[in-house]
Design a protein that fits this description.
By secondary structure, the protein is an alpha/beta fold. It is built from 10 helices and 8 strands. It is globular and about 50 Å long.
Length: 294
């Protein structure tokens, strides 16, 4: 619409282009969603308390122009035609409240990644979204190329993995560093020190909410390739099916409700209703739902 066309919009790569750049350039990735923005602007979220320090660090990282670090922001500043009605309502409200503040920290000459590349979308109200299950599988297997044949270290909250999955089964080796499930920034110094004890040729994958954004940045500055990828593993279940599952995505939304206001609870309830309806009347192919909130 004319209103959207008149807005000044940041440059954001598409999801596939974002993945391709990570593979091609072996760049590090830090990602921002509404949770990170809320913390920057002084608002606590459920699994991370607000502190001036984390707000300052998130502000610093967002303004990075280091070519080896790809900054991801949600591609939600312009048209919202590719998301369902509930998501559209949420993001319109969020941007109306926060756009001016966010824009203070964006470089409109810089190209950002789509922070939602970890949740390639098929949404029930989106007629333009891909419906081909093979395309979903191909997309997530493309992401797996990032760590193919590499030694990787996964830094995540202890006890946060619900699903047995093998999305890293193509890595050469995998080890783990564990942090708190909540308020991980309290343990930041220890996490950074343990991570920096790893060899520089290991790929560092960080799954720690907003703390991951800062940690991936500091590791990249220390010479590692580091990826803040969110709960990607919960989008891909089973050993033979490298694609998202409906149940995994509801757990993903449940785990990330801390990044939303009360609209998130309404969204979760609506999605649960749709899931029950979907299981009753459509086949397994049509039951795939990817959330763009991660």
């Amino acid at each position: 619409c004319d209103e959207v066309k008149s807005l000044r919009l940041p440059k954001v790569l598409g999801q596939k282009e974002s993945v391709a750049k990570i593979i091609r350039d072996k760049c590090s990735v830090v990602r921002y969603g509404d949770g990170e923005f809320n913390l920057m602007f002084g608002r606590a979220i459920g699994f991370q308390e607000y502190t001036p320090e984390i707000a300052a660090r998130l502000t610093e990282v967002l303004q990075s122009d280091d070519p080896s670090i790809l900054v991801g922001i949600p591609d939600r500043f312009g048209s919202l035609a590719d998301v369902d009605a509930q998501s559209r309502a949420y993001w319109r409200t969020f941007m109306a409240k926060n756009r001016t503040q966010i824009y203070k920290y964006l470089n409109f000459e810089q190209t950002y990644a789509d922070a939602c590349f970890t949740a390639h979308a098929i949404e029930p109200d989106n007629e333009n979204a891909p419906k081909d299950e093979a395309e979903i599988e191909a997309y997530y297997n493309e992401i797996r190329k990032i760590w193919d044949g590499r030694d990787i270290t996964i830094i995540r909250g202890e006890g946060t993995e619900i699903f047995q999955h093998d999305i890293y089964d193509n890595a050469k080796s995998v080890n783990y560093i564990y942090g708190p499930k909540a308020h991980a920034f309290r343990d930041y110094d220890r996490l950074l020190a343990e991570a920096k004890a790893q060899p520089k040729d290991r790929l560092m994958i960080v799954v720690l909410g907003p703390t991951a954004t800062v940690l991936a940045y500091d590791l990249a500055k220390a010479g590692y390739q580091a990826l803040d990828i969110g709960h990607l593993g919960k989008l891909m279940t089973g050993s033979s099916v490298k694609k998202p599952s409906l149940s995994a995505n509801f757990l993903l939304l449940r785990d990330r409700l801390h990044t939303f206001d009360t609209n998130a609870v309404k969204t979760y309830d609506l999605l649960c209703h749709r899931a029950k309806r979907s299981f009753n009347r459509v086949n397994k192919r049509q039951e795939v739902l990817i959330l763009r909130f991660s």
